[in-house]
Design goal:
Blueprint: H1 3-13, E1 17-23, E2 35-41, H2 45-58, E3 62-65, E4 71-73, E5 78-84, E6 92-94, E7 99-103, H3 108-117, E8 120-121, H4 133-139, E9 142-143, E10 146-147, E11 152-158, E12 164-168, H5 180-184, E13 187-194, E14 196-197, H6 200-217, E15 224-227, H7 237-243, E16 250-251, E17 254-256, E18 263-266, H8 272-290, E19 299-301
The protein binds flavin-adenine dinucleotide (FAD).
Flavin-adenine dinucleotide (FAD) binds near residues 64, 69, 132, 181 and 224.
């Protein structure tokens, strides 16, 4: 650890906690990943701006982490600062006109519950996605026919120049698993959503139905990062993987789920190396079998 950097980071972070040698396996749903040099649990937008300014001026690499549910972190960890939006920046407010304002670290399940409490429909699709609203902006997260682009009205971001900007829905350039946030490296601070009036019975019924579908179809009993590969145009990654004879195929502690071939799971002691080797083999064999090249959906972070 460099004590000067640590000291400056502590100063920039204000009340936000600064940890060193923090294992990323504890902050990713894959439960994989080595130590980050520095780990800041962001408490407010000012701390985020200050830490980013410091990283830019000292040329320290930094990475934004939400709930780590779409991340494969390397066994070597991360040389630089992980800035995490989690519990500390997760306020959800429902305004009188039904607008929902959520801080970047708010879990989608928390927002879905707040919407249910106020009888606001349209967010049920997101209740079972285990990420934050900030992470959901990057990938235009979606499920069961719904997408973030359907419900977002505006997004407050920090630009690469460390300036605050508010983007309206149209400016977010939402597409399949992409957005202006992904394209421009913005940092999401806050999101506003517009939902519609609905009965609580109806909302609950939808949420329960989608929850049951997930429990039945997805290997939620094992750590994973959800769908490992993007959906190829006109096809499904899981179907292609199964057709290539890879159901249950394993490397070390990583395995193609027997329940849902689109998920790579951690059977307990998987390393990032295991997962990477498995993914490469899956891509190779699916290509040989179908001619289609699968593209990873999970994002790689750090040193492998
Ligand atoms: P992270 O995984 O922490 O980060 C993902 C990316 O977003 C990284 O590039 C990170 O730098 C960036 N990021 C995070 N927060 C911010 C921020 N505030 N500002 C800027 N960049 C940020 N996804 C779906 O779309 N649909 C599904 O149905 C779905 N089901 C899943 C089921 C399971 C069991 C699991 C484990 C995952 C699933 N996912 C699904 C994947 C994942 O939950 C989503 O992609 C989610 O949006 C990621 O959010 P996160 O907060 O965990 O982001």
């Amino acid at each position: 650890m460099n004590f000067d950097i640590y000291k400056e980071l502590k100063e920039a972070a204000g009340k936000s906690e600064v940890l060193t040698q923090e294992m990323l396996s504890g902050h990713t749903t894959f439960r994989v990943g080595g130590p980050a040099d520095y780990f800041v649990a962001a408490k407010d937008a000012q701390a985020v701006q200050n830490v980013i300014a410091l990283c830019i001026s000292k040329q320290i690499p930094y990475y934004i982490l939400g709930n780590g549910s779409n991340i494969l972190a390397g066994d070597g960890g991360y040389r630089g600062v992980i800035l995490q939006f989690g519990k500390e920046m997760s306020e959800v407010e429902v305004l009188e006109d039904g607008t929902i304002r959520a801080q970047a670290g708010a879990l989608l399940s928390k927002i879905a519950n707040a919407a249910y409490e106020k009888a606001l429909g349209g967010f049920e699709f997101a209740a079972g996605i285990p990420g934050t609203i900030g992470g959901a902006m990057v990938m235009n997260a979606g499920a069961y026919g719904g997408e973030m682009k359907d419900v977002v009205t505006s997004v407050k971001v920090l630009t690469k120049e460390n300036e605050i900007r508010v983007l309206i829905n149209k400016e977010m350039e939402f597409g399949y698993r992409t957005s202006a946030v992904a394209k421009n490296g913005y940092i999401v601070l806050e999101v506003e959503l517009k939902l519609h009036e609905a009965s609580q019975e109806e909302i609950k019924e939808k949420m329960d139905d989608l929850k049951n579908r997930r429990i039945t179809k997805q290997p939620l009993e094992f750590p994973s990062a959800g769908s490992t590969f993007k959906r190829p145009e006109g096809n499904f990654a899981g179907k292609l993987i199964e057709e290539a004879g890879l159901r249950g195929f394993g490397v070390g502690g990583a395995q193609v789920s027997e329940k849902h071939c689109g998920f790579v799971i951690n059977r307990g002691k998987a390393t990032a190396k295991d997962v990477t080797e498995l993914m490469n083999e899956v891509i190779k064999r699916v290509k040989e079998n179908s001619g289609i090249e699968l593209e990873p959906e999970v994002k790689r972070l750090g040193e492998f």
